[in-house]
Amino acid sequence: MTEPPASGVPAPPLPGGAVPAPPLPGGAVIELDDVVLRYGEHVAVRGASLRLDPGAIHAIVGENGAGKSTLLKLAAGVLAPDAGAVRVDGAPLRPATPAEAARRGVGMVHQHFMLVGSFLALENVVLGCEPTRGCGRLDLAAARARARALMEAAGLSIPLDAATSALTVGERQKLEILRVLYRGARAILLDEPTAVLSPIEADGLYATLRRLAREGRTVAVVTHRLDEVIRFADHVTVMRRGQVALSRPAAGRSAEAGERGAEGELTRAIMGGEPPPRVDRPPLGEGAPAALEIAGLTVTGAGGRRLLDGVTLTVRAGEIAGVAGVEGNGQRELVRAIAGMEPRAAGRVAVGGVDLSSWDIRARRACLGVVHEDRHAEGVLLGASVGDNLVLGDLGELPRGARGRDAEAALVARRVARFRVEPPDPSRLAGELSGGNQQKIVVARALDRVAPAARSNARAAIRAPRRAAAVLAQPTRGVDVGAAAVIHAAIAEAAAAGLAVLVISADLGELRRLCHRLLVMRKGRIVVTLPPSCSDEEIGRAMLGLEAA
């Protein structure tokens, strides 16, 4: 018998007719004991032990490549350990497969959504464990009843009959949680669940997780956001170089000074020493000329709805301007339109006084560095080498023959060193690197390309305007403290060298530290401009339309 939900609607069978096992009283739901996982010669996890207790939110933090996500995948049966043991309710997880873990009540929400965009939300919920009635017909009515009961119990709100592609990022994140709950999960493991969420959405997600923990479920979250650990977690584990460096109850939620002290302790445990110095915005000179000019930028979607509604803004040479907004309010379309990738765009984009509106994507590269929000979809070729990714789009600007090969090697070496890509091996596949190091590759290529040194060859110098600009969407999404410091320093250096930089980020702390002013987007429009000294509440009210433009 599986444990029925509050509504009394029984949980559906899992693939193969199995049903989730009932929880055992007391004890840890999940235990990892001296687990080891190797990728060839690289040891991703070495002798790590972890205990996840029910009724609590357990945060797992560490640098990119420290083994956090790998540890979670071992617990969820996505990966099988080379040594050590994974136990669920005291019994070994055998076979170590996602199906067996799901049968035992363990569900994982991955960092990159595992959803079919063309399906309805409800269809994604039941995919793989579809309920049936007479003659094997799909019983969506039963599925809808159970999904609604689970949403009510967990405090979730998702339009079940909407196309998944039309959902906001926050709704898709909740849909992933509903999927694992539908399969009877008693332990919910989430990998970077707030990386794509606004602060308001992140608070709502943790309210849901707290509710699930109070029901007695086990909740584990991998995150880079230490403020979330301090505010929401009951227990925190720090991973460093594949090992558990620290595991203790989370502390410091009450007093502001206590929060700062706890965050500093965690940062030192993550880094294995003192954290890197904080990077602040460079000074902006008086009378700096306009470098990036956008006028009347408009993108019209299906049904005539304006996804981008006449955006007009100017970023001066040496200025860092930030764009804040709830995900899905036109930020993606703005970046694509500036980059020349949005065929439905109308309006004007100019860099250094030169109108780029008729230039194609390739022509814009000499003066416009762009980082898109999804590095896997629009930034990194996971099956290609680190070196190939670092020069992607640059080979046509290099000399031919042996001189070209030497220039390419020098360019790769410079970008690896400047952005501290780890491991510093250009022959390594990009897909084998941590998410943070993949992000370094994307940012390195975009910023180094438009820096004066990168535009020194004759062809680029002829085509490039006198000034250059960079547009960076979510530049430190899913990135640890050390990698974020490297990227922030590169952004500040680019601005200090005279580039106009536009940063689109869901991290309000990042925007306030780096930017000279903040632009808030809502429904495809810039609704208000705020100083970096503004509060989260001011920005949040503007995001939600509670602040007059």
Description:
- With 549 residues, the chain is α/β, with parallel strands linked by helices.
- The chain has two domains: 30-271, Rossmann fold (3-Layer(aba) Sandwich); 290-383 and 451-543, Rossmann fold, CATH 3.40.50.
- 33% of the residues lie in helices and 23% in strands.
- It is built from 18 helices and 22 strands.
- It has helices at residues 68-75, 98-103, 121-126, 140-154, 169-182, 199-214, 226-232, 256-271, 331-339, 361-364, 375-378, 386-390, 401-418, 435-450, 458-463, 481-496, 508-514, 536-543, and strands at residues 30-39, 42-52, 57-62, 83-88, 91-92, 106-109, 132-133, 137-138, 187-191, 218-222, 235-240, 243-249, 290-300, 306-316, 320-324, 345-351, 354-355, 368-371, 469-473, 500-504, 517-522, 525-530.
- The strands form five sheets. Strands 6-9-10-3-11-12 form a six-stranded mixed β-sheet, sandwiched between helices. It has a six-stranded mixed β-sheet with strand order 18-19-20-15-21-22, with helices on both faces.
- Helix 14 packs parallel to helix 16 (481-496).
- The longest helix is centred in the last third of the chain and has 18 residues, at 401-418.
- It is globular and about 65 Å long.
- The termini are far apart.
- Mean pLDDT is 84; it is low at 1-10, 14-27, 252-258 and 453-465.
